Amino acid sequence: QQITEEVVAFSVPSYACQRRTTLENHNMVLTDALSLLAENAELSEEDGRGVAFRRAAAVLKCLPEPVRSMAQLRGLPCLGDHSLRVIKEILETGASSEVESMRESERYKALKVLTGIFGVGAKTADRWIREGIQDLQQLRDSEQTLNRAQQAGLEHYHDLNQLVTKAEADAISEIMERTVISVLPGAQMTLIGGFRRGKQTGHDIDFLITHPEEGREEGLMSKVVSCLEAQGFLLYQKTTRNSYLESSSGPGRPSSNMDRFERCFSIFKLAKEDKRGETLMEDGAKTLNGDPGSHSPSSGQSQASGDRKRASEDGAKDKPSKHKRWRAVRVDLVVSPISQFAFALLGWTGSKLFERELRRWAGHERSMSLSSHALFDSKQGRYLRATSEEEIFAHLGLEFIPPSERNA
Ligand code: DGT
Ligand code: MG
């Protein structure tokens, strides 16, 4: 008796912001391969190709079960020829030769190591590679000048390339909460980024701070930073005015409010045990394997000569020490006025692709311009107010997707 297997093709809407993507991924082998191609494109500054692979990976992430045959993919959005070729080879042989040879290539490995240094982006890494620098030792032996962020990045390289755990995020949340309230009673702090989406690990911890009374948040960032510094919690910090001004945000930029939107990139010094004596991290925890350097602040770094130092002066400080009772953790802080809070919350919760797709949806499907500050409706020629994420989704004509389902 012949068994005919019925092929049920998957069906998926085209924009990631129309889909529910949990952390449960049934196609990890495929999405890991496509993510690596995306990462390599981004490291080579081919952002268009990078996005194409990210979109393809995101489509596979939201499928309800593992892909078994190419026929199931018929009609799915965002799967280009290149992605389909990679998927086909993996389904047939278990691996993609292109991905495997990329993973093993000297250039990819060098880009990974160098952009794994906090403050080093694809451009800098590429220049160093062209000058013959492939690893940390060669960087230290070179006469390269490093800015303050890169010096800190090299010094804490080992720690910053270990994934941050949820327990560590909770411990730092507690410290942050106490600090924020002590400098401004009534101020509110929210965990954002990957941890808000329910991830159990991340490459950093992101916080959004506001105050329910408009204007009270002014000057808050510098007070919070000073207070953290006074308590000895900061190994590094750089506060900038938010500079996330994409041209695509166009008229949606509330220029007068811009100045109040501040961001701080920091490196926290976290004790290895909390008050209860519980260990916050596993020694030899899994190595970070996210998107190193993809949002590195190198472009915003001060170029003042006083900030700069030769790579060789940093010695070999990143080596893990048995007796070190603390570890370095990347922490990002954002302060927003309450009038922009919902937009900031939505804009900083991620994932990066989900955010990008929301903006693309707004622009292409609704003639609106969405940023982390505001939503501008070009047809009506006005800003649309919102006090919650739900309202923003409603303005955009999208079903509300909770943070745990924004893991595109
Ligand atoms: P992680 O840290 O590897 O677990 O992953 P995420 O999702 O926390 O990513 P992260 O920390 O790079 O950024 C958090 C979210 O904030 C991300 O989903 C997109 C958004 N984001 C990152 N950088 C910027 C920025 O400069 N401006 C704005 N508006 N949003 C940003
Ligand atoms: Mg994060």
UniProtKB/TrEMBL annotation:
Mg(2+) binds at D204, D206, D332. One of its GO terms (cellular component) is nucleus. Residues 290-305 have a biased composition (Low complexity). It catalyses: DNA(n) + a 2'-deoxyribonucleoside 5'-triphosphate = DNA(n+1) + diphosphate. Residues 306-319 have a biased composition (Basic and acidic residues). GO terms for molecular function: DNA binding; DNA nucleotidylexotransferase activity; DNA-directed DNA polymerase activity; metal ion binding. It is found in: Nucleus. Its cofactor is Mg(2+). Its EC number is 2.7.7.7. Residues 283-323 are annotated as: Disordered. Keywords: Magnesium, Metal-binding, Nucleotidyltransferase, Nucleus, Terminal addition, Transferase. One of its GO terms (biological process) is DNA modification. It comes from the Eukaryota. Belongs to the DNA polymerase type-X family. Gap-filling polymerase involved in repair of DNA double-strand breaks by non-homologous end joining (NHEJ). This is DNA-directed DNA/RNA polymerase mu. It comes from Xyrichtys novacula. The lineage of its organism: Eukaryota, Metazoa, Chordata, Craniata, Vertebrata. The chain holds residues 117 to 524 of 524 of the full protein.
